[in-house]
Amino acid sequence: MTRRAAPALLAAAVLLLGTACGSRLPERDFDHRPTTAATGRRPLTVGIITSATSPIGATAFTGPRDGARAYFARLNDHGGVGGRPVRVVTCDDQGAGIGNSDCVRRLLTKEKVFALVAGTSLDYAGAPLVSRAGVPDIGGQPIGAQYDTYPHLYSIYGSLAPRDGTPGWDGRLYGGTEVYRYFREEHGARTAAVVSYNQASSAAYARLVTEGLRAEGYRVAVEQVDFALPNFRAVAADIGARGADLVFDALDTHGNVQLCEAMEAADVRVAAKVTNVQNWSSQVPDDYRDVPGCRGSLWVTGSSRDYADRDHPAVAAFLEGMDRYAATKVRSQWQLEGWAAAMWFADAAASCGDDVTRACVERFMGRTEPYDADGLLLPVRFERLPEPPQTRRTCLSVARWRDDAHGWVTQGDMNENCFTVPQLAYRP
Fold it and tell me: Least crowded by CB within 10 Å, which of 116, 203, 239, 402?
């Protein structure tokens, strides 16, 4: 069972891939060979596959990779895993299934990686190869359904599905309504608008959001625009006329900005325009520079601690590590989750002592005790339930953008923003 981020990311990925044509063979980003304090013993080699160059853009999916690389660089400077350095090999699959399969083959056969970590692929076509080879894949972003389909794959958000080769349970995944419950109970929201394109994946995700909102008792305005010639002015006018408290969307970033521009022009104000973890970054002032009113209504929800919450010691360590080891100045939630994925692998390997084997690492991943990466993640576990749960107690992290605070501001403790909510089925 993937958490709420997965269907949103899947919709965005398929939506944008649908606008592209052609593909190129993948090429290696670089080999990161440790030259730090941890050089006395044979290194552990890990691979990171990222859709670094893709139809979506050059930086859209690189956050987890950058966070994991920074963590491993810091780890090596502090002695590695039991004195063994971690060697990182990356591969850019360029957003294509054939490129992803080529990356998997190269990393498994040529580079002989021990594990994959913090992967972010638009089309994880190589997942069956990874599973058959018994290579642990730790902390990847579940953009598709692969992390709820195959054994040996462990997404950053956990899974309760059988992972027996079929997605979820009989081809259905399940997600909760905790986001909608949060805004209803904590902020009194009762009316929401859901905006999508007239495109299959966008419309499918919008239906899922609409179903969840209605299950929580919301009045829902369903708004759809033409993908080629969207009329966001009409949508903004209807949102204003219906008095929506919240706006959810199944749009790309460009569409979101256009919607915000239309809302600003129509003087439409909402309590919250809710986005997902992929857009939880320090780039908000640039992306929304011309729409300050809409920018001020941005909220985001996720399953990891706000990357801007520097008062938390694990977040402070992440920010310090990124400042020291990462080239980019942008900070994002996906970087933090990549950092947490690398920590997860390191803790799993360290649990093995001197005998680091894949079987030992997977025993750590399959523990009944949930993992939280020193408090960076909501507690994550992997179970294989024969039937999907009908309800589940689920927590969420929440932040809102504040211009006066120059960034994202955490809203409540993520381990206390918890609700027992129904689990709704959807097909990936």
Answer: 402
SS3 content of the chain, % helix, strand, coil (to 5): 35, 20, 40
Q: How many CB atoms lie within 10 A of CB 151?
A: 15
Buried/exposed 324-342: b ≥16 CB within 10 Å, e otherwise: ebbeeeebbbbbbbbbbbb
- Among the listed ranges 10-14, 38-42, 82-86, 186-190, which one has the minimum average pLDDT value? 10-14
Contacts 24+ apart (CB under 8 A), 98-101: 98/23, 98/25, 98/125, 99/23, 99/24, 99/25, 99/26, 100/26, 100/49, 100/124, 100/125, 100/126, 101/125, 101/126, 101/129
Do the beta carbons of residue 406 and residue 427 sit within 8 Å?
Answer: no
- DSSP state letter for 172: B
What number is the average pLDDT over the span 45-51? 97
pLDDT in the model for residue 12: 55
Phi, psi of 337 (to 5 degrees): -70, -30
Between CA 208 and CA 145 the distance in angstroms is 16
Question: What is the side-by-side strand order in the sheet with 173-176?
Answer: 173-176, 418-426, 391-395
pLDDT of residue 59: 80
Tokens in use for 186?
A: 């904590």
End-to-end CA distance of the chain: 11
Q: How confident is the model at residue 41 (pLDDT cuts 50, 70, 90)?
A: confident
CA distance 226 to 412: 38
Q: What is the pLDDT of residue 7?
A: 59
CA distance 428 to 425: 10
Whether the predicted pLDDT of 351 surpasses 50: yes
The pLDDT assigned to 55 comes to 77
Q: Which residue has the tokens 């009045």?
A: 219
Contact (Cβ atoms closer than 8 angstroms) between residue 142 and residue 13: no
Full-model pTM: 0.92
Rounded CA separation 121/124 (Å): 5
